[in-house]
C-alpha cells in the first residue's frame, strides 16, 4: 500500500489568493507510462494556478517528462550562480523497479517538491525559463529542451572541469588557488559533515523501512501458520489460535502501512536533504570558479600595472597600446570581483533560507516518525493484550 500524502511544509505551495494577494500554485499529478521497452518513460500533468500578470492565464495544464524537469534545473543552474537550485530526484533507477507504483509515486512527489520550491523562491519564481516550463505546449517544450545554451550543461561537466584542474595541479601545470577565509572554511566543514550525517541517517531510515516490512511479512506468515495449527487441534484451542492468527495478520497490515509512512514521510525527506546538500556543493563549485577568476585577473592586473609604469619611461611608443590593454584588463578584473562578491552575498542569503527550511522539514519528518512509531507500538500492545485472558484461560483449562 502506498501512502503519498505529505504535510504542506514538505511541498511549499503558495496559498490560494486571499483578497487578491499574488499566488502561484503548482501540482505535479497523474503519472502515466508512455511508450514501450527501452523507450518507455513516465509523463506527468503539471497544473499551474496563479493570478500573476506575467502568466498567460489563471490556470494552465501541460504534460512534462523527467527530461523537461531536468532542462528547467540545468537552465536555472546556468543563470543563477550563487543560488541553491532545488534538487531533482535521481535520474537512473534499477530497471525492474523503474515503473513500480512506489518508485513512480516517490518520483512524482520529489518532482512536485522540486518545482514548488522554485515557485516559492523570491528570485527563481521570476525566471523566464520557469514560465516556459509551466506554459509552453509540448512541441515548444521539445524545441526549448533541444536548444542547449551555455558551456556547461550538467553537474558532471563541473565535476569534469574540477578533475581537470586537479590534474593540472598534480602535473605541475597550475598551482591551486582557493578561498581560505575562516568563515568559508567553517562553512565547507559544516556542509561536508552535514552530508555525511544526513546520508547515515537516511541509510538507517531505509533499514527501518525494510525491517518493518520484513516483520510485517513474518507476522502474516505466522498468522497463517497459527490458524492451521489451531484447526489441527480443534475445540477451544482452534478458536483461540484463530484469534491469535487474525491479530497477527491485522498487525502485519499495520506494519506494512507504517513502512509506507516511514518511506514517504521520514526516509524520503532525509534523502531529499542529502540531494539538497549536493546542490549546495554545486554552488560552492561555482563560488570556487568565480574566486579563481577574480584572483587570476587581479594578479594579472597588478602585474600589468607594474609593467605599464616601466613602459611609460622605457618604451613610450608602446605605452598607449599597453595602457588600452590594461584598461580592458582592469574592467574584466573588476567585473570578476563583482561576480564573486555577488555569489558570496547570494550564498549567505541562501544558507539562512536553507537552515530555516531544513529545521522545519527535518523537524516535521522526525515528528511524523515518532508519532507513527507511538501509534504502532500502542496498536501492537493493545492487540496482544486483548487476547491475553483467552490464552491464559486456555493454558489453565
TrEMBL record:
Any one annotated GO CC term: membrane
UniProt xrefs under CDD domains: BAR_SNX, PX_SNX1_2_like
Domain PX: 22-141
Pfam families registered for this protein in UniProt: PX, Vps5
Gene3D superfamilies to which the protein is assigned, alphabetical: Arfaptin homology (AH) domain/BAR domain (1.20.1270.60), Phox-like domain (3.30.1520.10)
Residues of the signal peptide: none
Name the record gives this protein: PX domain-containing protein
Amino acid at each position: 500500500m502506498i501512502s503519498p500524502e505529505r504535510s504542506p511544509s514538505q511541498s511549499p505551495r503558495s496559498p490560494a489568493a486571499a483578497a487578491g494577494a499574488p499566488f502561484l500554485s503548482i501540482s505535479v499529478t497523474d503519472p502515466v507510462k508512455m511508450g514501450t521497452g527501452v523507450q518507455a518513460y513516465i509523463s506527468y500533468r503539471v497544473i499551474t494556478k496563479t493570478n500573476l500578470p506575467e502568466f498567460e492565464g489563471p490556470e494552465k495544464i501541460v504534460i512534462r517528462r523527467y527530461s523537461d524537469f531536468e532542462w528547467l534545473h540545468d537552465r536555472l543552474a546556468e543563470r543563477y550562480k550563487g543560488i541553491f537550485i532545488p534538487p531533482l530526484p535521481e535520474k537512473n533507477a534499477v530497471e525492474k523497479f523503474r515503473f513500480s507504483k512506489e518508485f513512480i509515486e516517490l518520483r512524482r512527489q520529489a518532482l512536485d517538491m522540486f518545482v514548488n520550491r522554485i515557485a516559492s523562491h523570491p528570485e527563481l519564481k521570476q525566471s523566464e525559463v520557469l514560465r516556459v516550463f509551466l506554459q509552453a505546449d509540448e512541441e515548444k517544450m521539445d524545441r526549448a529542451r533541444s536548444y542547449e545554451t551555455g558551456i556547461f550543461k550538467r553537474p558532471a561537466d563541473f565535476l569534469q572541469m574540477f578533475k581537470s584542474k586537479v590534474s593540472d595541479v598534480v602535473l605541475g601545470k597550475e598551482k591551486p588557488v582557493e578561498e581560505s577565509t575562516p568563515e568559508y572554511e567553517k562553512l565547507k566543514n559544516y556542509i561536508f559533515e552535514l552530508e555525511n550525517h544526513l546520508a547515515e541517517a537516511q541509510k538507517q531510515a531505509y533499514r527501518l523501512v525494510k525491517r518493518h516490512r520484513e516483520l510485517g511479512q513474518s507476522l502474516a506468515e505466522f498468522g497463517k501458520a497459527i490458524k492451521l495449527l489451531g484447526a489441527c487441534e480443534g475445540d477451544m484451542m482452534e478458536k483461540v489460535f484463530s484469534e491469535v492468527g487474525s491479530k497477527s495478520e491485522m498487525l502485519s497490515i499495520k506494519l506494512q502501512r507504517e513502512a509506507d509512512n516511514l518511506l514517504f514521510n521520514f526516509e524520503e525527506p532525509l534523502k531529499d536533504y542529502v540531494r539538497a546538500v549536493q546542490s549546495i556543493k554545486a554552488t560552492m563549485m561555482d563560488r570556487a570558479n568565480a574566486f579563481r577568476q577574480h584572483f587570476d585577473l587581479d594578479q594579472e592586473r597588478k602585474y600589468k600595472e607594474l609593467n605599464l609604469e616601466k613602459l611609460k619611461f622605457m618604451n613610450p611608443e608602446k605605452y598607449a597600446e599597453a595602457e588600452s590593454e590594461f584598461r580592458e584588463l582592469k574592467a574584466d578584473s573588476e567585473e570578476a570581483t563583482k561576480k564573486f562578491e555577488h555569489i558570496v552575498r547570494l550564498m549567505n542569503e541562501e544558507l539562512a533560507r536553507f537552515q530555516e527550511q531544513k529545521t522545519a522539514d527535518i523537524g516535521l519528518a522526525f515528528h511524523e516518525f515518532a508519532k507513527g512509531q507511538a501509534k504502532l507500538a500502542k496498536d501492537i500492545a493493545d492487540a496482544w493484550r486483548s487476547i491475553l485472558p483467552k490464552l491464559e484461560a486456555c493454558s489453565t483449562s
